């Protein structure tokens, strides 16, 4: 039996007892108190007992109301706790749904970043390759230019060597000519001297023939 039904049954009993006491009180008031002293005293005692019961009933009712209020508050708290639990579960479910989406988004973002990094690495490699090719080309150009300069210098050296050889040959030829001319001059001078000597000897012979020496 619920507390409301208990309260209703108790209220009906109280009403019935109160009607009986009121009837007894009326009887005591109508009768002669001296003849019916016991009746009047009993009515007073019943009234006091009724007051005590009413007070006890009121306290019980207040206690029941407080208990009911406490129960109601507890039920409200439990209901609120259940609501909070339900909301928390809903939030967790929503969080669980969001987490795979976040994870997928993060995976997609990470994949995109990795692709961008790989593309950037390929670009860096291509730029580095281009720089190496350019350096090689420049080095080859410089090497070719240096080689051409060396070849040109070698040609100049060869030309200068040929020129020196030509000069040496010319100088040798000039020296030979000069030597030949000197020899020719020497021969002519010798012939001239020989001729002069011959002339002197001939002149001396002629003088001796013309002026014989006196023998002492």
From TrEMBL:
Top-level taxon of origin: Eukaryota
Biased composition (Low complexity): 56-92, 101-210
Disordered, as annotated region: 1-27, 44-216
Protein name: Uncharacterized protein
Organism: Adineta steineri
Lineage, opening ranks: Eukaryota, Metazoa, Spiralia, Gnathifera, Rotifera
């Amino acid at each position: 039996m619920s507390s409301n039904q208990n309260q209703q049954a108790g209220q009906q009993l109280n009403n019935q007892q109160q009607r009986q006491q009121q009837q007894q009180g009326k009887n005591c008031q109508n009768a002669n108190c001296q003849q019916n002293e016991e009746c009047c005293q009993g009515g007073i005692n019943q009234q006091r007992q009724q007051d005590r019961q009413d007070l006890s009933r009121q306290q019980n009712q207040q206690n029941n109301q407080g208990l009911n209020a406490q129960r109601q508050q507890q039920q409200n708290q439990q209901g609120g706790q259940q609501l909070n639990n339900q909301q928390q579960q809903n939030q967790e479910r929503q969080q669980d749904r969001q987490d795979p989406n976040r994870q997928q988004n993060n995976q997609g973002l990470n994949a995109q970043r990795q692709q961008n990094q790989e593309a950037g690495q390929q670009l860096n490699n291509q730029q580095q390759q281009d720089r190496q090719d350019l350096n090689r080309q420049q080095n080859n150009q410089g090497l070719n230019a240096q080689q051409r300069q060396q070849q040109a210098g070698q040609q100049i050296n060869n030309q200068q060597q040929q020129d020196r050889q030509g000069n040496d040959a010319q100088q040798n030829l000039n020296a030979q000519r000069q030597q030949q001319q000197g020899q020719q001059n020497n021969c002519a001078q010798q012939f001239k001297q020989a001729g002069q000597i011959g002339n002197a000897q001939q002149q001396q012979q002629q003088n001796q023939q013309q002026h014989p020496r006196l023998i002492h």
